[in-house]
Amino acid sequence: MPIISVESVRKTFGEVLAIDDLTFAVDENEIFGILGPNGAGKTTTVECIAGTITPDRGQVTVLGADPARQRSLVRERVGYQLQSTALPPALRVGEAMELFAAFYESPADVGSMLDLVGMTGERRRPFGKLSGGQQQRLSIALALVGQPQVAVFDELTTGLDPQGRRDAWQLIEQIRNRGITVILVTHFLDEAERLCDRIAIIDKGRSRFIGSPTELMDATPHASTSPHRLEDAYLRLLDQDTASTARGM
Ligand SMILES: Nc1ncnc2c1ncn2[C@@H]1O[C@H](COP(=O)(O)OP(=O)(O)OP(=O)(O)O)[C@@H](O)[C@H]1O
After folding, report:
1. pTM of the model
2. Spatial distance between the Cα atoms of 92 and 25, rounded to a whole number of angstroms
3. Measured from the CB, is residue 41 less than 6 Å from ligand 1?
4. ipTM over 0.95
5. What's the CA gap between 127 and 58, in Å, rounded?
6. Residue 238: which domain range?
7. Transmembrane residues, as ranges (predicted)?
8. Does any ligand 1 atom lie closer than 6 A to the CB of residue 36?
9. What is d(CA 236, CA 161) in angstroms, rounded to the nearest whole number?
């Protein structure tokens, strides 16, 4: 059953058309990936869902609410992990968690959240002294401290080493196993293939594909004898679109 729907949404920033006529729905408890080239409109899309920006046209519904009109209700239910978490370097991990927890009516227990992300031992460590992987794990804990029903992760694993990425993947699966619906913005096709039930591919603000990774691979011709990867199917899809545009189709 869809718990998020995005219908015919358009958002412009001055002259820039960031997303146009975008429509998709996210089912309860799925891991839904949003992929696309740089500047495609992915962050704009999740910001419309989280209620941090308001679409010019169209309708977004999150758990029955309109994020533009019922902003505080949606913020209570949607945990949003930003592309990069900027906290004062001297702020300790435990203090950051307590601070964020204070924004919510019924926050999670800070200790158990730090335990979930493997940061119990870092509770007194200042943000500025954390490694990149630890900062990402803290950003996950901060996104979850309000006990959201939906968690949005925007380029969570960018900049992480291979082990850090695997750890983050495991965490995302654990989060889904807790009944949380996950929206994952990513540039990594292996990540989408491994984690996502369904994906939306956005290019130049418009939706190019919505379905499971397997459906995308099945829909894309594969001539070579090498294993067919989601990345090949993705690049082929975007290539086809570029070719069609060039032919004026
Ligand atoms: N606040 C803003 N003001 C002006 N233009 C913006 C703003 N936010 C986004 N844009 C523009 O809207 C378009 C879509 O941006 P968006 O950040 O949604 O893309 P993205 O797919 O998330 O990109 P990336 O993968 O590079 O993070 C881009 O052309 C971007 O420059």
Report:
1. 0.91
2. 38
3. yes
4. yes
5. 39
6. 2-246
7. none
8. yes
9. 27
